[in-house]
Amino acid sequence: MPARPTLRRRVVDPTRTIRGRFTTAIRHSPSRLAILVFSALILVFTGVFMLPVTAADGTPTSFADALFTAASVVCVTGLSTVDMATHWSTFGNVVVVIGTQIGALGVLTLASILGLVVTRRLGLRAKLIAAGDSNPLRGHAGAVPEGQAVRLGEVGTLLATVAISTLSIEIALGVLLVPSVLVTGVPFWTAVGDSFYYAAMAFTNTGFSPNPEGLAPFEHDYWFLSLLMLGVIAGSIGFPVIRTLTTQWRTPRRWSIHVKLTLATSGILLAAGTAAYIALESSNHATFGRFGAGDTVFQSLFLSTMTRSGGFATVPVDDLHGASLLVTDMLMFIGGGSASTAGGIKVTTLAVLFLAAVAEARGRRSMEAFGRRVPSDVLRLAVAVVLWGATIIALSTVTLLQITQDSLDHVLFEVISAFATSGLSSGVSASAPEAGKYVLAATMFLGRVGTVTIAAALAASQSRQLFTRPEERPIVG
């Protein structure tokens, strides 16, 4: 009787299984992968912040405060429910800085780098994902100027390029900040640590302060405040703009429309915000009314810069007039440049909507700027980003109002600051109950991840339709 064949048990390699799942995620849903990566990062940092060694007093931090801090750090927001200067130990402060650096790299960039580590190679799809963080429209139909983004052949060195830019700017800022911190009377090595902490928080547009007084010791140190503004602006204009300014600064005519729109819109908003704060706060003795004319102009410029997502403040935000709070809400909602450390709907989104309004007023069928025509699909993408952002803010505001029973202007300010990852606070975060902290943490997550992944998903999703339906115009306006 012939012997029965023996069945060999198949051994499953867990490493190959993980690689296979990551490869599948990269190929089929980069946006979902980005959300999963960011969610995992927040959970990991939440666990670290709950460790006794992370707190200065050696006691575990509550889950709500740890989760809120992790979301604020990874999303480079700057809001806090604990005193960031005294609550965390030296190890905790190091974790905060590391988290902001990881968050500043960008969602899709981080996801693609993770895919590179796991799959050990970058295929065409993975390169498109990585490049999408510098230009979400790359996967969309139509011509995309490569000068405003990272070329596919350079994606393998994307992490090194971003890291070098980040480290160079932060190190330069840190060195230049040391003298100002030393003047306040702190020991040398403490001054060095605080200086580089401020530099990291400025470039990543986070806004945490390492000392309990915040910026009070530097309220009239315009060298220190100017360096913070430079760091915030450098982080908020975006990596594609930094790359263009460093490689093509002599030939502005060759700059892409993205770079020109980002710089032009950012400059206009910065000037408009400064003028608004001068007009609204020059009579407020709780803020700028106690200063002279020159000091008022500088402090207004500083506040206008920080609304772009910087998060630093030399005056208590809750002392601003109601009109100034509303102006700040609008500036925070707009935010900074695309593919930057700033949040908001982005300045190019606002610019596209403005160009569409101008084209409609002039009766033109297409949007034009700097001698270039902007296709209509970019407008649809901009409208989608604004609507999603407004919906998130509305739902979060209603929910937080019900939980805290606080005033509408303060709650709306806090929600927009969380969504736009600005970090300016009206005090609602610190006094909110646990349910309110969860709402704000979710708002920070959606603000940092939601609009980027939505833009990437919408830009990459292009379906063919072989028929057209009958046209009919609804009444609008």
Radius of gyration: 24 Å
Query: How many β-strands, per DSSP?
Result: 2
Strand content: under 5%
Residues in helix, %: 55-70%
Low-confidence stretches: 111-157
By DSSP (H or I, 4+ residues per run), the number of helices equals 18
How widely separated are the two ends?
89 Å
Sketch the topology as an H/E string, one letter per element.
Answer: HHHHHHHHHHHHHHEEHHHH
Average pLDDT reading: 82
SSE-based structural type: mainly alpha
Largest sheet: 2 strands, antiparallel
Strand line-up of the largest beta sheet: 1-2
Overall form:
globular
Walk me through the structure:
The protein is mostly helical. About 60% of the residues lie in helices and about 0% in strands. It has 18 helices and two strands. Strands 1-2 form a two-stranded antiparallel sheet. It is globular and about 70 Å long. The chain starts with 13 loop residues before the first helix and ends in a 17-residue tail after the last helix. The model is unreliable at about 110-155 (pLDDT under 50).
